[in-house]
TrEMBL record, chain A:
The name this protein goes by in its record: Carbohydrate ABC transporter membrane protein 1 (CUT1 family)
Superkingdom of origin: Bacteria
Family: Belongs to the binding-protein-dependent transport system permease family.
InterPro entries with a match to the protein in the record: ABC_transporter_permease (IPR051393), MetI-like (IPR000515), MetI-like_sf (IPR035906)
Transmembrane regions listed in the UniProt entry: 33-54, 99-118, 130-150, 181-205, 226-248, 285-305
Subcellular location: Cell membrane
Ranges annotated as biased composition (Basic and acidic residues): 1-14
Organism: Phycicoccus duodecadis
Annotated spans, Disordered: 1-25
UniProtKB/TrEMBL annotation, chain B:
Recorded coiled-coil stretches: none
Protein name as catalogued: Carbohydrate ABC transporter substrate-binding protein (CUT1 family)
Cleavable signal peptide: 1-32
Keywords: Signal
Gene3D superfamilies, per database record: Periplasmic binding protein-like II
InterPro entries per record: Bact_solute-bd_prot1, SBP, TAT_signal
Species lineage: Bacteria, Bacillati, Actinomycetota, Actinomycetes, Micrococcales
PANTHER family named in the record: ARABINOSE-BINDING PROTEIN-RELATED, DIACETYLCHITOBIOSE BINDING PROTEIN DASA
Amino acid sequence: MTETLQDRSRRVADGEAPTGRRRRSAAARTHPGLWLFPLPALVLYAVFFAGPTIQAFQYSITDWDGFSAAFQNVGTSNFENIATNDDLFLGAATNNLKFLLVVVIAQTVLSLLLAVLLQRNSRSSTTLRALFFLPAILSSVSVAFVWKFMYDPNFGLINQVLGGIGLDGLKSSFLGNASTAIYWVALTQVWAHAGQLMVIFVAGLQQIPEELYESAALDGASQWQRFRFVTWPLIAPATAIVVAYTTIQSFKAFDLILGLGGNPPKGSLDILSTRIYTTFTNSRFGYAAAESIVFMAIIALVSLLQRRAVRLTQHGV
Amino acid sequence: MNKNTFGQPLSRRTALQLLGVGGAGAALTACAGPGSTAGATSAASAPATGKPTGAISFAHWRAEDKDVFAKLITAFQSATPDVTVRQDISPSNDYQSSALQRIRGGSVGDVFTAFRGAQFVDMVKAGVYSDMSKQAVVQQYEPSLITAGQQDGTQYGFPYQVVFNMPVTNEDIIGKATGGTPPKDWQSFLDLCDKLKSQGLVPIAWPGGDPGNAGQLFNSMVMNNAPSDDMCAKIESGEYKCTDDWFLTTLKQYQQLKPYFQPNSTGTAVEPCQQIFATKKAAMLATGSYHIAAIRALGATFPMNVISPITTSADKAKYEGIYNATFILGVNTHSQHQAAALAWLEFLSQPANAGEYANGTSQHVTVKGVEYTNPDLKALAPWLQKKTLLAPRFQFNNLDIRSAVEGACIAVVGGKSPDAAAADAQRVVDQQRSQ
């Protein structure tokens, strides 16, 4: 006997009990036709994500130059070189780590501070929130060009102001100083995105029931204690989002680096994403693919460690 | 049997099996080899001839030449009504990094250009340049200026522009300071810089924050110091080292130049340098003649020329300056309209049209018999006859090696000791060679 979908739906809706094991499993089973619905998404995923990822693994063990039909299988030597014989990759990873630390800490703290100060929906707060959010709607390339001229040692606003107030000794070459250049780029990144992340914190803060603050106040909690024991644990989800987003963003600050540092950037401004791009440009597709896989592993590891760190700090309060 | 209105049921197990088979198939396909999916390299052939028809793409990176090319295209289309030409322009950095992949697809760049050096070598290797050796158009060019478009005896492309990659001078200032006789050795050059500095000027505006432009000075600094003319190729091959005496001497000379650059020069981009120079605050702009048009656009009206620091004594100097032949025109082997592409290239190679390009963009060209009417080109024309070296920095085929070697010069200006900078650069060179 043929059972239609409508029959089965009616039977389930009427509360009819299945009569046997087969009937029970048939009722619980997803109708096979429904498998067709995710198919377009699966195809897109396979073609644009899974396929290229598999290919990246395949390229990573070759010396393919990106256009030749011929290539050599080099086994794990690309990975060995990355680990032991590549100052450029190591330098980029170190720069990326510095960039990441500065951006994650400064951006999280600044956006949280702004959110705490501007969480009320008064007219002035709303205006200020909009102002702080403004850089987020600019493209990274525009931000890079604006700041490139801010950092210019000769005509840039920062050195002009320092000179104007008699602090000539503090004038700097900014992006031209190899030991500090990456921090100046990090500062730009913080400026551009702190307002955007402030919005996430504001949303998190506005979810906290007012009663908790009132109880804490009745218990004699200071402003700091209220923040530490009420606000901080309850904005854990928002913090996790902000930190995870900032981390990924720090690894992918590609356009900002190229905008500020040129293409290819100097070693002092090179981060992992720009290093991989330069390797591709250098017609070393196999090696660049290996770098991409190491990059992927680093992002996964850092994200995992951060998740654990955020959990520990917020559970431990 | 459990059936429904969709017919035979597809169990979860079957669906997973199908997905597994599909995935394995995809993986096997991927294992077929990267080259096989990307189009094989083909040996260069001569472009097809016949009646020129169709819509062709002209791929290049000179956005500043767009209007001049547009005029030439209009004239070409009037003369060849069955052909239309579209300019596909990318910023030079993007062109350097992605043009090859786009052009070999054949959808853009029926006629295309390449930078001299690594990009040209890769494009020839990828088989996108047609063999132009036996085309009549070869006769339109100065033979000595198109060697950069050859490889293994085959003429693949035609370097169209001749530029002088050496410091541009404000002749009002430099002429007065030198009495019309440029310095012939290193000490005289330093004396000139000293004299300019004492007048409250920046002797040399150098864009140390822009590695691409900062590297142009490198050409002049090594041209007489190095033991051979193929010094950069030899650094890349391992025959020369950055720790060799001649390179250390070059780094020490960069150190000597530091006081004569604008303050904080390692952080200065090229645009502020142009501004300093155009407003007569600097006597020299250490990039190249290709910036003259941009400086004029900033309002500069003073006479300009070029100068190369002679880093040795006068008797040991082999070269007076640097030139580069670049913007290497070629016909794409993957083009569907090769006859039209060839017709456009031939049109550009006619002296009248090349002259219009040259005078409109303030750049000399490699085409024979061109009449230069632009005053800046006239001023620089004597350099076409002087003893100049083809810019050596483009001998590097590995861009990471080039960046490391040129980066050593920037690092020295930034305060690093020449020995340490040389050692760091050589370490990168060695690593790149061994990878």
